[in-house]
Amino acid sequence: MKLTVIGCWGGYPKKNEASSGYLLEHNGYNLLIDCGSGVLSKLQNYLQPQQLDAVLLSHYHPDHNADIGVLYHARLIQGLLGTKPPTLPIYGHQLDEREFANLTYKKITKGVAFDPEKTLQVGPFTVSFLQTVHPVPCFAMRVEAAGKVLVYTADTSYKEEFIAFSKQADLLLCECNFYGNQSGKGAGHMNSFDAGNLAAAAEVQQLILTHLPHYGDTNQLVIEANQKYNGPTQLASEGLSIML
Q: Across residues 180-196, what is the average pLDDT?
């Protein structure tokens, strides 16, 4: 299983970059997790939109789903220019019916509801879900393939249930929108100490901090997380690629 970070910024994309988007590849299958603002532009450095096999959305905030609309048109136009790609499944929850309905566009994309109480099979990936603590319904994901485990927290403040959910994951892709001296609880986000505490309690193999703030020295986030967790830790960045 290969992870490539397409975008990692919280709220909106940093100049010339993108908000949340993560490409998972395994056995020739291409799964995009979240598709925030700027993701479609940056994705094309690694993969063409018509090469995606599926998209999986954690929730419907624009920094996680804004580029779904332009993804429709990319696949539509590429179909008109050459080989028509198959209908793209976009997996999302149905707790917001209006947003879920928007995932279906003509025969270009098809919204597919996941049941957060059950595991979801997407190509070679087995995905389980945990509802997060966020102002809108949002789901963390535990993704498994070929005996490897990636946990993506999506957007959330800290909750104890994350420890069992993330237990001994090979990689924890953890949101970190606040510095250690700040509380993100009211906004539904974690700080660097939360991320480090979770990584340590869950005994994960490595930690990547993502959904990053636009201010301050983000390298400080790693220093602070490592006060709680002594394993390998780094910031997400566009193009960061990790093979599990």
A: 97
